[in-house]
Design goal:
The chain is α/β, with parallel strands linked by helices. It contains nine helices and 15 strands. The protein folds into two domains: 55 residues, Winged helix-like DNA-binding domain superfamily/Winged helix DNA-binding domain (Arc Repressor Mutant, subunit A); 175 residues, Rossmann fold. The chain is 35% helix and 23% strand.
Length: 249
């Protein structure tokens, strides 16, 4: 495979999943870790992604400015956010996860809505502070420098003390059989705690992530009450999810 082809595939994976491991890329491309490490270093120099220990992250995942143009599939994520907002009622207590799709949800929440919003995400918290009728409660813990997200035992413990009407979460990978999965064990523990703290859990996911899986399981698909994609609910790409007790939006 030519270097240009490898670079394109690496950028596509990073854009889709926000974060990837060098070992996973090497396996999927059938090349050595050293080759992938050199590729990622070159792409980092070109400002196409950010190289981190053991992997790479998308620039849109770490640059949460209002004019961020690096967010992958922004139009699709905006559609998802617009759909998800219809679930939020005045006076609700909600929790918004981290990630680019959840941040789009936070940005589009109408200023007229009266809400209490918990979040583990610094970018989401700052965005929600611009909403005049929203009480924002940040769930503290060890901060991930990459994701700007509270992680660790303290964050999980804080989540055990709350109960929200709706949580809006993202995921790296989702499959009807294998459920929600991630490659980061800390993120898995956090998302488990978020689901446990929620009366209803809403998954926000672009369709490119459907029918994909990774090594660590967050939850069965049945733990999700509603899955929101940019697709129409009748789209055939969602057929594999129709046999489960989950609302498609």
């Amino acid at each position: 495979m030519l270097k240009e082809e490898r670079h394109l595939k690496i950028l596509n994976e990073v854009a889709l999943h926000n974060r990837v491991l060098l070992t996973d890329i090497a396996e999927s491309l059938n090349v050595s870790i050293d080759t992938v490490r050199r590729d990622v270093k070159e792409l980092d120099v070109l400002n196409k992604l950010k190289k981190v220990h053991g992997g790479a992250i998308a620039l849109g995942f770490v640059s949460f400015s209002p004019k961020n143009t690096n967010i992958y599939a922004l139009a699709e994520k905006t559609t998802i956010a617009q759909k998800a907002i219809t679930l939020i009622k005045d006076g609700s207590v909600i929790l918004i996860d981290g990630g680019t799709t959840c941040l789009e949800l936070a940005r589009l929440i109408p200023h007229k809505l009266h809400l209490t919003c918990f979040t583990l995400s610094l970018p989401v918290a700052l965005e929600m502070l611009t909403k005049p009728n929203v009480e924002v409660i940040f769930i503290g813990g060890k901060l991930s420098k990459d994701a700007q997200l509270s992680i660790g035992a303290n964050a999980v413990n804080n989540l055990s003390n709350i109960r929200v009407d709706y949580s809006f979460i993202g995921t790296g990978y989702v499959d009807p059989v294998y459920g929600l999965t991630e490659f980061d064990w800390d993120i898995v523990q956090l998302k488990k705690a978020v689901i446990d703290a929620s009366k209803k859990t809403v998954l926000l996911s672009i369709s490119e992530k459907l029918n994909s899986q990774h090594r660590y399981k967050t939850a069965d698909i049945s733990a999700i009450n509603t899955m929101v994609t940019e697709l129409e609910p009748t789209n055939s790409k969602l057929n594999s999810f129709r046999n489960y007790d989950i609302k498609l939006l």
